[in-house]
Amino acid sequence: MTERKAWFHALTVGSDSDTVRIGRGEPLPLGLHDCCDGLNIAVFSRHAAGVTLLLYGTADEREPCARLPLDARRHRTGDIWHARLTGDLRGKFYALQADGPGSPADGHDFDPDRTLLDPYAASVTDLSPGSPGRCVVADQGFDWFDDAPLRHPWSKTILYETHVRGLTIDPSSGVNRQGEYLGVVEKIPYFRELGITALELMPIQAFAPEALERNDPLTGERLRDYWGYNPVALFAPMSRYSGSVAPGGELVAFKTMVRELHRAGIEVILDVVFNHTAEGGRNGPTYSFRGLDNTIYYILTQDGEYADYTGCGNTLNCNHPVVRNMVVDCLRHWVVHFHIDGFRFDLASVLGRDARGKLLANPPLLEQIAEDPILRDVKLIAEAWDAGGAFQVGHFPGRRWAEWNCHFRDDVRRFWRGDPGMTGALATRLAGSSDLYQDGGEGPLNSVNFVTSHDGFTLNDLVSYTRKHNEANGEENRDGLDENYSDNYGAEGSSDDPQIEAMRLRQIKNLLATLLLSRGVPMLLGGDEFRRTQGGNNNAYCQDNTVSWYDWSLAGRNAELVRFVRQLIALRKAHPVLRAETFYTDVEVRWFEPTGQQPDWHGPDNRLGCLIRDSGASLCLLFNAVLAPCRFVMPPSPGSGWHIAIDTSKNESIADTSFGAEDTIAQSNIWLEARTTIVAVSRSTEAGPIE
Question: Please, where in the chain does CATH 2.60.40.10 lie?
């Protein structure tokens, strides 16, 4: 009985006094959770000699109302420190302190006076400089209205990558909740009309925007971490994206966003970062992991320094059993409590490295994620490389994983730029990238196809700049990719020359058409459909300003392009053959050059025809990436004649899924203007192989 004796502390909030009772607690689950008679907190630290729980009445208190040292005899089970708390703690705050060895040469970095966040905290306060970071005792309760996973098959998935804040923070967005989770909700009618099926949200795991200590050399403006790829609290949504709500209110705002997107038939994919943290290298800030057990959470060299396979100063030791369990627990947390439909893993190759940084043939973490029973239905997308030299596109471990296919991006860009010899590469990408996925027993749906992403030029800038313009990032234009396979078509940057602008618009349409006509899973970069620009900056990670923010007035000025994209998506949905889960067979597809003969796959002229036979309607895809026009011999129509559905050379969109008679191709050949895509459709009355 002596072992379970409890003692009491007073927690004062304003003029009230609340009694908090502390008991032994349980070692599982980790983090702060409701239990039968209060709250249970459990924190991992193998090498700590002591852990202290700090309680606060308000978020800005510098000194705790209660300091509760956890006696190892009562409050430690193995490597887990735990306690049970009873009393009125909702809306209060907590933090941790850990004492232990402080010998950097051995990899330890304990400091008994340093305040730390709980790695499993579901809600944290503002993380700006001068604001004491605190964990929030938040309520996970929420009325989901019987929300259930949408489970859109990959074959029907169209991704739209966007940034919660950047999407609506500009006044041109016309929403009431600018830059917030609820601002995304206000854009649902737009997303539904566009036709996308999933939002891929750039990081919303809590991070510290002001941790970046650098100014724009051109304006003197303080730069901030805008993208959010330096997480502080992996289990907590970014509180700043919820507006003026009480601490913990961001949970309701975020869940409301997910619920309303689901009601509109739109899935939510989170871009998650488990390869490194915001703690950086030796001189970086300490928020949590470093101060709780540095040698467990990070990959360290023999002399105690941080191994850096991420380019961000540290690398999480992902295949250590403790860290591995934390990652899986985190994914489960987002699925169970926030109804997330899938994840895109930043620098996912890091998740396959062992404690020495070696790439594993069958990484335990990747297998555990793929086989976890709670995660079995969620979408998994890997950025299959890292900054340590790993490049695993086409052979990322495990068949469940889809991959960002950078080969698609580069080959499609080079084809339309006119680089010689790219005809064969385009055909391979259109057909689902069998060169990457077929030998491993995978299919086209393992390929996430994209032409642009947050990491690089926007689509408008891809056809407006021949080189990057990242001077405003304060790194003397050294950051960002140097080779973008871009072209400006006559002038660097914006232009009022009508011929230049006409060619840029045509190339944008060509690139978008190629993306949405290809087998695989298409991903649009948000704003590309209305020519969002970053002024040539291809690495706008620190530009929380109009460089990155969506200017929605462009959607009005480029309404015809928005309509074109909407109709392209409708065309893709109307023809399942374009999004099948298997690779084309020789009886389904025939490739030809303008004369109708077999293509010269490596010839100097990037021109290609493709006949796709389907039971409902056959498609004829014609691509001319050359500066000169040409005439294509049309294959015989398998059905009711050929009807033009897409012609990117037209000033007005004619993309159509109804295929009216006025668009009928009367002759056996068709004229393609320079740099043009044409898609013709023939309604079939019966199925059959291509002759």
Answer: 2-136
